[in-house]
């Protein structure tokens, strides 16, 4: 009986997701700048001229799904903070239990961790700031507590922790309203006492969910680990798509196409952010 109920719930949610992606509200949204946004100072950073995918990402796209034994289990996320690289730094697949796994590595020359932490609270205050991050894929942004985000007495981490962001974007499953609940890295499985020794500058981690009729349904573990390089930072991103859901629901929503779409989106948005983050930080961080 329990399995039957889970399957019925999975089917109902899948239909809801489909209807949400096709709703008039979603179609009314526009990833382009509005007339008002075009007059905002951030508008100069809006460009749809994306850099080509890095060669290693193009190789991963051409290669297709990796083998399950080449993935990093979420329970071993601490391996990501060790020196060196894992067997696969760019790739995707669907595991036997239905979880989608995605790995992406992005070089961010000229970027430091202060810029990254600043960006993660600052961009969530205005739609235009989210749009310039990944034009065409990003539509709007909000947060549970905008006053907390804007509070100058708080650190960047304090502004975002326990303050979910509500982005509207397309990460390969259609345009949807998501929820990202950020967590401290040590609560996610990292030993932060090893960060400095291993050249890790910080990590942005959290749980991603879908927003349906004002209710959040968590589904994915997300990790962006930032490591110092000779030119700036590299970000090693990992997603365990659907890992928070029951197996029937994972298999309905997440497939290889969705995992590939996430890999492409993550590479596109972080390469694009790397291109303008130093400039926008120096222009706006002191205001």
Report on the architecture of this protein.
With 287 residues, the chain is an alpha+beta fold. It has one domain (2-284). The chain contains 9 helices and 8 strands. The chain has helices at residues 2-21, 24-28, 55-63, 113-122, 127-133, 146-150, 156-160, 247-253, 256-284; strands at residues 91-94, 100-109, 138-140, 168-170, 175-183, 200-212, 215-228, 232-241. Strands 1-2-8-7-6-5-4-3 form an 8-stranded antiparallel β-sheet, with helices on both faces. α1 (2-21) runs parallel beside α8 (247-253). Residues 1-27 have low confidence and may be disordered.
Structural class: alpha+beta
Q: Which percent range fits the helix content?
A: 25-40%
Order of helices and strands: HHHEEHHEHHEEEEEHH
How many domain regions? 1
Enumerate the spans where pLDDT stays under 50 for 5 or more consecutive residues. 1-27
Q: Helix count, per DSSP?
A: 9
Name the overall outline: globular
Structure characteristics:
single chain; about 290 residues; alpha+beta; eight-stranded antiparallel beta sheet; 9 helices; disordered N terminus
